[in-house]
Structure formats: structure tokens, C-alpha cells
Prior knowledge:
Blueprint: H1 27-38, H2 50-66, E1 69-70, E2 78-88, E3 93-96, E4 99-100, E5 108-109, E6 115-123, H3 129-132, E7 141-145, H4 156-173, E8 178-182, H5 185-194, E9 202-204, E10 219-222, H6 227-230, E11 236-241, E12 243-257, E13 268-274, E14 279-284, E15 287-290, H7 293-312, E16 318-324, H8 332-339, E17 348-354, E18 364-368, H9 378-390, E19 395-396, H10 416-420, E20 425-429, H11 448-467
Parallel strand pairs: 6-7, 7-8, 8-10, 13-16, 13-17, 17-20, 18-19
Antiparallel strand pairs: 1-12, 2-9, 2-12, 3-4, 3-11, 5-10, 6-11, 12-16, 14-15, 18-20
Helix pairs in contact: 1-7, 2-7, 7-11, 9-11
Amino acid sequence: MAASAQKKPATAKPAAKPTNAISAIREADIKRDLFGLAGDHFRGREGGTLDELKASVWLADQIRATGMLPAGDDGTYFQWFNLQRTRLSKSSTLRIGTHEIKLNETGAVTAPTNASVNAPLVFVGTGSPAELAKVDIKGKAVAVQISGAPTDGISYRRYVFGKFNGQAGELVKAGAVAVVFVSDAPSQALYDHWSHTFERGRYSLPGANNTKVVSTPPVVWLPASAASWVQQAGQQLTAELKVDSFQYPSVNIVAKMPGTDAQLKKEYVLFSTHQDHDGVRAPIAGDSIYNGADDNATGCAALLAIMRAFKQQPSRRSALFVYQGSEERGLIGSTYFSAHPTVPQSSIVAVLNAEMMGRNIADSAALLGSTPPHLNSSDLVKTALAANQAGPKFKLDTEWDKPTHPEGWYFRSDHLPYARLGIPAIMYTSLLHVDYHTPRDEPSRIDYAKLTRMTTWMYLTGWAVANRTAPPAREPGFKLER
């Protein structure tokens, strides 16, 4: 070229679009990991037990194999915290007339309390105003028949459990020194399924408001078989209830894949799930291990698959993976981590939470946090909806995200503590089913093709958030209904 010839100005090439690693998410890997975690070996992974800790060590080994770096305390994959457990002492006793109530076998006390009661028992039917008007309940123990079905859309379980606070509270205000609820035929099914949960008592972080033991009149729940003799006149209720309160450890598991962008790598997209379930409890059909395959080994296996994808192709932002312990005890691990994160809290730009993703209709799912007042980032939700259309194309159920839904599902998983802090947060779920919190929630019942598609959807959302320049915008004026 002659020296006098002018060079054409260089044309800037557009930045290459990051290529994802969706091929690293494989159904066979997910199925293998889920069977490993939700088999009988870990005995249901109950929060705060050795079984949860053993499962957490197993998960840390799987995480290490993916190539993720430890992001817990002191260069480990673990962040330890203590549970405060408050329960009735084994020495507690309860008797009605000639009937000794064996706590957590033939009857349950619905909340731990220090109480000494020796009072006549009066039966007031269903406790209607007309029935109560006939009886002086002051200074007496009051027996009430559970009856009726809700007509206002409240689920039956919430209706019955609401009586333990609402109706019992009104009776105590009127002078009752103890309240005894007796199951009818419909509520007997609830008693069989849920009464064993009261044996555990209450859990919290040490120092939380609900750790304080208040001596209140006891509320007792009896099976339907007690209905005939509870109504007999002239019986005395005697109770000597004592409370134990103590601490033991639980753990979060934390890992990361550093980002590739010099600035954006200081920010994190947090992938969230929980590793615990209900442990060993009252047997149903001869099985006493509550394996929690859908709840929430599905989320655990999904995060391992997403880790493999981020290892194969890192994103501009860093990816943070948190398995939160003791979720079933009241979101305790996520409450602790959100308040004491191992990365700066302000660096977490979004939380994508996996909760029960492998059951129900194959082409249906839900994205909680997508409907006001639960919507705290329209921006994040739009990204998730676009990822659904680009990937699995689930038909999305929006009913479960509404504040009027009787299950209150939005408030029952690990995205909640982050949302309360204003961090954009959503939950991926395939919703409840008949095996929820029973020994029938087994690995053999999972729809692995669906779980793989749910995992892909979650990954594609996180991948998009991790590579865009601006973090998801937060919703102005966000405020939850409770």
C-alpha cells in the first residue's frame, strides 16, 4: 500500500454474548445426587441432628468435586450456628380422670409451657357462644370438640391449627386454666399426620424473641378416640408440665464460583436451597424415615447441577451457592446467613431459591415473588419469565403467590429473609402434594425430567443476571403483607 493511502477506521466489534453451559445440567447426574442424599442412609436429615451434619459433609464433598471454592467460615464450606430448642421435659405428666395422657403418643401439648394444673374438666361441645353461656368455665379446664369445615377458603389444617391459638386464647381470657381439643373424624387425619411435630417443641436462633418460655395455660390436642370419655362429667385434669431449653449446632454450606469481570466479580447471584428435612418420626404404613426427596433434595441436586454449569462456563458476576440448614425448624439457617453473610450483604444482587421442584403436573410450575405484594423486583421476575420461555416453557401457576392463598407458601422458604432485607428474591417450586412431610416423599416418586427442566430454568435466570451489566432493579415501596 502506498504511504499516502489512508487506512479505513477500525469498526468496533460488539461484545460477544456469553455462551452458557446448559449442557452440563444432566438428568442422570441430578438423579444420582438425589438418590444419594434422600436415601435412608441420612435418616431424613433432621435439622440440628447428626443426620443433618452427616448429610452436610456429604454435600460438601459433592460440591468440592464440582470445582466450586469454599465460601464459608475460615476457608471451609461451612458456616456454623446454634439452634435454641425449647420443648416439654420428659418428666412432664398429664392426666384426665383415670386416663393418663402419654405425651406425643396418646395426646399432644401444642406449645411448650411451664404449668401446674389441678382443675375440674368441663365439656362445652364445639365451644359456641350458646354452649359457653350454659357453663361457668372460670378456673376450670375446658374440653372442646373440633368440628366444622372452613367456608372462607382457609385450608383445613390452618383452620384447625388456628383454633389452638384463636379459640383457646378466647377461652383462657374467659378464665379457663387449660384447653383440651378433641379431634372429630376429619381432623383425625390431621392429628395422625401432624401431631407428632409438637414433640419437637420450638426452635429459634439464640436470643430471638420466641426463645423466652412463658408460663401459659396448656393447650392439649387429643385423638378422636378420646371423644367418648372426655365428655364424662366429674373428671379432674391434672398436669405438671416443665420446659427444657438448650442449644445444639446446625450448619449452612457455602460455595462460590468467582466471576470473570474485574468489577462485577465483587457482586454475587445467590442460589439458595436447604438440605434438612424431618428426620425419623412416627411411622406411617411401617416407614418412619421422612426422606424429603422433593423437600428438598430436589433443590440440593439442582444446585449441584448448576455448579457444574458455572464451572464449565463462569459468568461475569460471581455465583454464590448456599445450602441453608434447619429450614424446617423455621428458616433458621437462611435467617442466620442473611444477617451474617460470608460476603458483604450489599454485594448480593439477587436470590434464586429452589424449593420442592420435582412433583405434580409435568408442564406446570410456579415462581413465587412474582405477584404483588410479594414482588420485590419486576426486573428480576422479567428475567426469570424470559428464561422460562427460552428454556422449559412451564405453564406458571400464579395462585400460590397471592396473599389470599391459604397455604401462605411465600412465607415458608429460604428466600423470605433476603426479601425482608430488600434483596431481589424469587422462589422456584412445583408446589405441594399429598406426600408432603410424610415418609412417602421418596426418590422413586420424583419426576426427574421435570426436575431437570426446573434446574435449567433456574440456571438460565441466574446466568442472565450474572452476565448483565446492571443488577436487577428493586421495587420501590416494597412491603410484605405480614
